[in-house]
Each structure stands twice: as structure tokens, then as C-alpha cells.
Automatic annotation (TrEMBL):
Domain Cathepsin propeptide inhibitor: 51-106
Source organism: Sorghum bicolor (Sorghum)
GO-annotated cellular components: extracellular space; lysosome
GO biological process: proteolysis involved in protein catabolic process
UniProt protein name: Cysteine proteinase
Region (Disordered): 110-137
Record keywords, A-Z: Disulfide bond, Signal
Entries under PANTHER family matching the protein: CYSTEINE PROTEASE FAMILY C1-RELATED (PTHR12411)
Compositional bias ranges of the Low complexity kind: 121-131
MF annotations from Gene Ontology: cysteine-type endopeptidase activity
Record domain Peptidase C1A papain C-terminal: where: 148-365
Signal sequence, renumbered to the chain: 1-30
Family indicated by similarity: Belongs to the peptidase C1 family.
Record Gene3D superfamilies: Cysteine proteinases (3.90.70.10)
């Protein structure tokens, strides 16, 4: 068991975890699982051998009808990865679970799932206990020029659970919401609890594997609350299966609740940085093919503002070369990106930020 204690730093309640937690925190990128070399691209035979290695790593099983078109798509992706990584860029791409999927399949929403927020859903919502006084302090802090640390990572302060995997289900909206609630609950209570996306998926009337509204999903955390994941002790809700099942919520079992939610509008880099310093923040971005190919480094696009994927900003920092970035937790498993994370470039010169990250930041409120 990891022992935690509350500390206050710069006006923020922080979880100081034991050294074992800091050792467990994933630092940078994992070893590339299926690297691509010039030799792999020399012939159809060498390319086929690369494809078989990739399939063994990602447990891909295909029938004969599917194999040939999948292989053709994979070859195109492997060539692109090899050529891209020879460029002088701030990030690298790699082969991953998406490497034999067509653009149409990637755009189907089954690996993303954030639907556009309805106009009626974007106003603030608060529970019966009301909001805290610092509800809008990200605006005040920015206006007053209040300084925050030059780097911050909630993984080092016990407010981020392990990277999860939404699988072949457009449920990123649930994973993003749950991760931000896990964060604020840990900050406020001193206990990092793993909460159940399966319960949200099963019991939410608003979302499914075909997508959902991230901001609306926070209402589920206000009432009836989020169930503990099956890994918790005692276990509460069954394991995630990437399918919407019958709701098995039991109000008599322990749940985690929040008091309210808020969506930030017309956000600036400074305002989001201040809010991230206070807690992990849900954001919605455009996850295009460039985003999906990401392997390591500071992602700089190209990407637009066709928002389709909900993720969580858990920190920020600057490379030794002086490139500012956001630390973003994804829900595509630990084999994607930097052990499940992507570093996204800050200060890209657009109001919306890279991939639209400043358009719809949202966060839970908990007393």
C-alpha cells in the first residue's frame, strides 16, 4: 500500500506520495515495440515479416479475406513512419494498434468518441453544496499575472491513475471525465481511487460506444456518483469490456461524487496552465492520423479543430531545447505514445491551441 499525506504548495493542496509512487510513475517513452528500418522496406517479403512481427505484438488475428487489404494499408503506414522519422521534427511517429486501419476506420469514432456539446449543456452546473470561491480564479490569476511553477506533473503528486484502454469503443468521453474526477478526488481527500468507466458507459443515458458528451457526463459524477473500479478493494463494479452493458449500479456501495462542473471558454495558455496547476483538466482535441501515429517527443501537428477525442491534461513542462508542452493522458493503453501519454506543444500561435486544446477545457468542482 502506498502512503500519502497532504501538503500545501503555492496555495494548492498536493498529494505527497511515498518514494515508491515516484518510482512507479512513468517518466518518458517506452521502448518502441515494432521499430521500422530501411531493411524492413527492401522487399515485399521483408515487409511481410515486419507485418507478422507487428501482428504478434498487437495480437491481431485476421482471416484470409482481410489479410491482403490490411497488409497494403500497413505497408503505406510503415513507409510513412520510416520517412517521417528521418526529418528534423520535435516528435517521432511509430507503428501502433492503428497501423493497418484505413482513414475511414480511424474516422469512424470507434477509437475516439467525443460528440459536440449541446448548447444547453455548456453552462456551469453545481451541486446543492454550491461552488468554492476560487471557481473563476484562473481568470483572476491570469489577469493579475500570478506565477505558477515552470513545470508541473500531477503524476508526481498522486492524482493520476494508471493509463487505461478504451479499446474498440467510442468511450473517450467517459475516460476523460473519470480521469479528471479521479484527480480532484485524490487532491481533496488524499486518496487516489480508481473509478469505473464501465459503470459510466452502462448507466449513462447520454453516451455509448458510438460516442458521448464529455461535459454532460460530469452530471453522472454529481449524481448518483462514480463507482469504484473492479481493481479497488473491495471491488465494486465489473471490469471494463468496451461494450455497453446493463447498468449494475448499487447506490448502497461506496461512490465518489463531485459538487459541480465548469467549462472554460475562450481559454488562453496562461489560464489553462493555472487550472492544470490546480487539478487535472479534461480537454477535447482533434485526434487525426498524425495524432494517432505519435510515438514520442513533443507533438506539433499538423492537426485542426475538428474536435473528436476527449483526453486529460495532467501537467506541463519545457524540454531542454526550450519547447513548451502539455502532458496529456490518453485512453489508448500504455503501448501507445509515451507509455500512454502524449506531450503536445504549447505556444503554437493560434487562439484554439494545438488540435483545438483551448476550445473546451472542462473540470469537476469538489469541496
Amino acid at each position: 500500500m502506498i502512503t500519502m499525506k497532504l501538503q500545501r504548495m503555492g496555495g494548492v493542496v498536493v498529494l505527497a506520495a511515498a518514494a515508491v509512487l515516484l518510482v512507479a510513475v512513468v517518466a518518458v517513452a517506452a521502448e518502441e515495440l515494432v521499430p521500422v528500418t530501411d531493411k524492413d522496406l527492401e522487399s515485399n517479403t521483408s515487409m511481410w515479416n515486419l507485418y507478422q512481427r507487428w501482428r504478434s505484438v498487437y495480437n491481431v488475428s485476421l482471416d484470409l479475406v482481410e489479410t491482403e487489404p490490411r497488409f497494403e494499408t500497413f505497408k503505406e503506414d510503415a513507409r510513412y513512419v520510416n520517412e517521417f522519422n528521418k526529418r528534423d521534427m520535435t516528435y517521432k511517429v511509430g507503428l501502433n494498434q492503428f497501423s493497418d486501419l484505413t482513414d475511414e476506420e480511424l474516422d469512424s469514432g470507434m477509437y475516439t468518441g467525443a460528440l459536440p456539446e449541446d448548447a444547453d449543456n455548456v453552462s456551469s452546473s453545481i451541486g446543492s453544496s454550491g461552488m468554492t470561491d476560487d471557481d473563476d480564479d484562473e481568470l483572476l490569476a491570469s489577469a493579475a499575472g500570478k506565477k505558477v511553477p515552470s513545470k508541473w506533473d500531477w503524476r508526481h503528486h498522486g492524482a493520476v491513475t494508471s493509463v487505461k484502454n478504451q479499446g474498440h469503443c467510442g468511450s473517450c468521453w467517459a475516460f476523460s471525465m473519470v480521469a479528471s474526477v479521479e484527480g480532484i478526488n485524490a487532491i481533496k481527500t488524499g486518496k487516489l481511487r480508481t473509478l469505473s468507466e464501465q459503470e459510466v458507459l452502462d448507466c449513462s443515458d447520454d453516451g455509448s460506444c458510438k460516442g458521448g458528451h464529455t461535459y454532460k457526463a460530469f452530471d453522472h459524477a454529481i449524481k448518483p456518483g462514480l463507482a469504484l473500479d473492479h481493481h479497488e478493494h473491495p471491488p465494486y463494479y465489473p471490469a471494463y469490456v468496451a461494450k455497453k452493458k446493463q447498468c449494475r449500479f448499487n447506490p448502497k456501495k461506496p461512490v465518489v461524487k463531485i459538487n459541480g462542473k465548469r467549462m472554460m471558454r475562450d481559454t488562453t495558455e496562461a489560464q489553462l496552465r493555472w487550472r492544470v496547476y490546480k487539478q487535472p483538466v479534461s480537454v477535447v482535441v482533434e485526434a487525426n492520423r498524425a495524432f494517432k501515429r505519435y510515438s514520442k517527443g513533443v507533438f506539433s501537428g499538423p492537426c485542426g479543430t475538428r474536435l473528436n477525442h476527449a483526453v486529460v491534461v495532467v501537467g506541463y513542462g519545457t524540454t531542454k531545447e526550450g519547447i513548451d508542452y502539455w502532458i496529456v493522458k490518453n485512453s489508448w493503453g500504455k503501448s501507445w505514445g509515451e507509455n500512454g501519454y502524449i506531450r503536445m506543444k504549447r505556444h503554437v500561435g493560434t487562439k484554439a491551441g494545438l488540435c483545438g486544446i483551448y476550445i473546451k477545457p472542462m473540470y469537476p468542482i469538489k469541496k
